[in-house]
Amino acid sequence: MQKDPKNLVFNVNDIPRKFKVDQVCLDNYLVNGKIKRWNGPFQTVFSPIEMLKNNEIEKIEIGKYPLMDEKTAIEALDAAAYAYSNGRGIWPTMTVEERAYHVLKFVNKMIEQRDNIIKLLMWEIAKSFEDSTKEFDRTIKYIKDTINEVIDLDRNSSKFSIVDNYIAQIRRSPLGVVLSMGPYNYPLNETFTTLIPAVIMGNTVVVKPPRLGVLIYNYLIEAFQSSFPPGVINIIFGKGTEIITPIIKTGKINVLAFVGSSQSADSIRSKHPIPHRLRCVLGMDAKNPAIILKDADIGLAVKECIDGTLSFNGQRCTALKIIFVHNDIVEEFIRKFTEAVDKIKIGMPWENDVKITPIADNNRISYFSEIIKDALEKGGKIINTIGGIKGFNFFYPTVVYPVKNNMKLYWEEQFGPVIPISSFNSIDEPLEYVINSNFGQQASIFGNNADEISYLIDNLANQVCRININAQCQRGPDIFPFTGRKDSAENTLSVFDALRAFSIRSAVVTKGEENNKSIIREIISNRKSKFLSTNYIL
Ligand code: G3H
């Protein structure tokens, strides 16, 4: 274990060739089907990975992206609004089969950029090679699964319902212009899990990438431009206050798809002039607890809690962010857990089996120190050997115990490698915690007693949206619903649910008189309507 972060820093000449990165000059953007050159100011991008060059520590500049202005953002919005044309544009009136064809064309082009995108994820947010690869491949799978799901949906919607002498066909139709904004910890995957369902359902989209993880778009713009009709997808870059506030204020955005902090989500949605016309699909804050019961398999709980708290430095919304352990086993758990934490591999994203890498958003490092200090002042202790060490954007995993309800670490989402542990006597104590917490995404229970586990399930089911038994919290498989209560989410995402989140049901209904039936028959057999149709994709 390297106790001095300086020893983890590579000399630029020692970076494996496969992972060396060239500077990315992202100087264009996509509006109305045209890739336009940006002539205004730029944001320089430095990697969170610091390097040694001629024996000096150096920040590595990996590229730049446009800092666009209000006028250009409005241009993008207008292009999306025109492509939608109040639901009468080419895209929203296209058949599902045709739209699926465009998405398939896009995904094939995206696959060609696999290596470039994975490498940039490693440099932009310091995600390990293994996790960056997973993020890319999982996104491709998500897109392909979405195509299959939309085809199924279309097939199921092509039938007629006959109820009480009413004949109806009920399909799902788009909502309008979607603003899609993903988070920096999953800049590709979590943007695409809203963008792709939105587009395939017939909406048009303005995409604004997160603050970190922007340069990957350098390898996607051409694929978007050549795969979709003009205006269907528009991509803009810059600061939220400059480009998001003005477009929300127009009232022309119909759906806000946002993954990030609840504070930012509130700030964006509050600027919409007619809030009830804005559907929000939000993934926000979380502080998922692990509850370790006295008969838990401690080895298993330790393993799952290591992955749950520390994968990608704990920078996952689904990460386990507080561990409650029964008093009878707390000592043994802590001993085994801290041993495992102290052995974890810390290093650069290209190193084999690395788990802890530089912190993506290095502004957060001072926050980690602040919440630890607060806990120490109130009686908590750092209980692992490497806890509290930091430097060169590394923040070593830090386990704090005992964490009590007067500490920030008990309530606040740390979103990083700081692990609070609390002990309990009665299972009602962690339950009280969940009830009083601002978050309601998921929880993990570790134990073997069916009575205790069922008591927890029944009490947690109305507090969170996924209860994991003897397993860490996570989003996948992506076919499962991903959502939350309170400050954690609004609307549900999964391959299946996202298609519903970005659409609304529209029904064509008539009474069962012969005259009406013959009108319907004529429309269907002569394929006069795209909407009222029994055609489906085989
Ligand atoms: O950051 C939140 C992600 O949706 C978590 O996804 O559980 O697959 O890491 P994950």
In short:
It contains 17 helices and 25 strands.
Number of helices: 17
| First-last Cα distance | 57 Å
- Strand residue content: 15-25%
Q: What is the average per-residue confidence, as pLDDT, rounded to a whole number? A: 97
Query: What oligomeric state do the depicted chains represent?
Result: single chain
What form results from the Cα inertia axes? globular
Q: Main sheet: which strands, in order across?
A: 15-18-19-14-13-21-22
* Beta strands, count: 25
Largest sheet: 7 strands, mixed
Approximate helicity band? 25-40%
> What structural class do you assign from the helix and strand content?
alpha/beta
Unreliable stretches, pLDDT < 50, 5 or more residues? none
- Any ligands, ions or cofactors bound here, and which? glyceraldehyde-3-phosphate
Radius of gyration: 25 Å
Describe the structure.
The chain is of the alpha/beta class. Helix content is 37%, strand content 22%. The chain is built from 17 helices and 25 strands. Helix 7 links the parallel strand 9 and strand 10. Helix 1 crosses helix 8 and helix 6 packs across helix 16. The protein is globular and about 80 Å long. The protein binds glyceraldehyde-3-phosphate.
Topology:
Blueprint (H helix, E strand, L loop, with lengths): L23 E2 L2 E4 L2 E4 L4 E12 L2 E11 L3 H15 L5 H4 L2 H17 L1 H12 L3 H29 L3 E3 L2 E9 L2 E5 L7 H12 L3 E4 L13 H7 L5 E3 L4 H10 L5 E5 L2 H8 L9 E5 L4 E5 L5 H13 L9 E7 L3 H14 L21 H13 L3 E2 L7 E2 L2 E2 L2 E4 L6 H4 L6 E7 L3 H9 L2 E2 L1 E5 L3 H11 L5 E4 L15 E2 L2 E2 L4 H7 L1 E9 L2 H12 L13
Parallel strand pairs: 1-5, 8-9, 8-11, 9-10, 11-12, 13-14, 13-21, 14-19, 18-19, 21-22
Antiparallel strand pairs: 2-3, 4-5, 6-7, 7-25, 12-24, 15-18, 16-17, 20-23
Helix pairs in contact: 1-8, 3-5, 3-7, 4-5, 5-6, 6-16, 10-11
The protein binds glyceraldehyde-3-phosphate.
